[in-house]
Amino acid sequence: MAPTAIHKVTLEPKLTKTSKADNTNDETGQSIRLAARSGTFTNQTSGAAPTYVQANLIAIPARYASDFRLLCKRNPVPCPLLAESSDVGNWNALKSQVPGVTGEQIASNVDLRKDFPRYMVYEDGKLVKSQCLQVETEWTEDHVGFLIGCSFSFESALADAGLTPAHMAHGTNVPMYRTSLPLCPAGVFKNATYVVSMRLYRKEDVERVRDITRPYVATHGEPIDWGWDSVSRLGIEDITKPEFGDSPVLPNGSALSQMADSMAGDIVPVFWGCGVTPQEAVRQATLQGTVLGHAPGHMIVLDLRDWDIVPEGSP
Amino acid sequence: MAPTAIHKVTLEPKLTKTSKADNTNDETGQSIRLAARSGTFTNQTSGAAPTYVQANLIAIPARYASDFRLLCKRNPVPCPLLAESSDVGNWNALKSQVPGVTGEQIASNVDLRKDFPRYMVYEDGKLVKSQCLQVETEWTEDHVGFLIGCSFSFESALADAGLTPAHMAHGTNVPMYRTSLPLCPAGVFKNATYVVSMRLYRKEDVERVRDITRPYVATHGEPIDWGWDSVSRLGIEDITKPEFGDSPVLPNGSALSQMADSMAGDIVPVFWGCGVTPQEAVRQATLQGTVLGHAPGHMIVLDLRDWDIVPEGSP
């Protein structure tokens, strides 16, 4: 998958509640949604509308919905549930799963069938369509859409601290990997394993990176593992070849595969739970019927802001 | 560790809200707590006061409390947080973490220092006292006690369905094992791994066992893994030698180690998240200061009933 990002990435000033000032390109959640809906925005969304919370999609037949909610409850790190369809079949109103926030506040003026830049379609557990721009014809009255928090949400905070993820600085998609780390099963969702996103950091910065991302509990929170040993611990075969997103780049923009061995003591991979996990769980459960997901990295951008989901007083 | 249980285990009639009828031996949460407090009840608690919810203890210095809460939030299956000290240092009033239930309803007339039949004491991450009857002298004004759900809570429901766990039927403690399955880290709690409890079941009964325990989300819920392959998947070295509790017994009461190979196709191990996990997480984090836990299998029995934590309409 080639890098597709074209929008300019800027280092944002310190995160505050002064709204417009922290978003130099005037993008909002709604502006990105409307652009995706009309088919004019088709890119990955890392760095899009900074401080607006982003989310992953999984839409499944209603008979699997309660098992899926339980899967999220038992595995909140890879599957932090933000919202779901207000009713079975509904694609334009949300029911919030975030305490103290309404579905309307998460996103008003929403169309779950079109507001993601790109989609994936599964039939009976098999991928049948990839990277399509909308799923209007595939969505049925029996679908329940779920929005899962996305790690792009804490990238602004990392950038604020001078820890801009390399993929963000260079306009590529974050690398994402299948792992052998099992989810806690829930009903039909058995044998599922974590998908993780990865960002490279200097070893000495890992504790700061943990501290900064820790409060983002609704969007995967702190890393699940880090260091070169974690690659085999997670069952990742080749870190230069992610299953989703783009190949990892170093801070200077060159490919990770080009890294001199001498740097491996200094720079280490850091892994977070990833919202592609539910899509993999659905694939692994070979659900019958039509399942809709976003294309990895191509998120819906919500009206919700970072500070709506991070408790006051967090770093 | 030799079996210590002496109280009679009876198969209870179908779980209903008619209170006394379902507890033929007239034990209540409070009667067990008072007996433990006075030092007259010192046994493991599997089968004690059926339908009264049981809980694990971990009491830690206050500076680690917020990281511990986050550990529970990120790992709700092994660490389902039911309640904590109402204030730092408090051992006789609880703050509830169960929606719709007050601390007073979880347990009134409570003494976290004495109401568990047996305790463990750690200093700077090292076990210094084992199986002691109370921890009055070790508890300080700086301790925060946490109560974690216990899988004994769904054993009544299994018994109701004719699926009495063999250890319960034969009056022994449930076998518990350390595993290599990592928890999601949280602050100081890094490199921690699951502890699991195990019950043997016929392969054909596993889906029913999953269904029955699924609603008990506050007390570990459905199993995390099952089948003979799961033993190596979980990194358990010898299933006949649990690290905590008693050696596993077969339905006929003989040791698992005596099982004929011909039975292995029919009878399989089923593993649940276990509330000893937080105690192991504390040990693995080598927290500084004094940490107090219950002795595995020796739970506090609460005023809360099974139906207070299982949603209406569950199987």
From TrEMBL, chains A, B:
InterPro entries: D-Glu_cyclase, Putative_hydro-lyase. GO terms for molecular function: D-glutamate cyclase activity. The keyword Lyase applies. GO terms for biological process: glutamate metabolic process. The keyword Zinc does not apply. It holds the Pfam family D-Glu_cyclase. Keywords: Lyase. PANTHER family: D-GLUTAMATE CYCLASE, MITOCHONDRIAL. Belongs to the D-glutamate cyclase family. This is DUF1445 domain protein. It comes from Cladophialophora chaetospira.
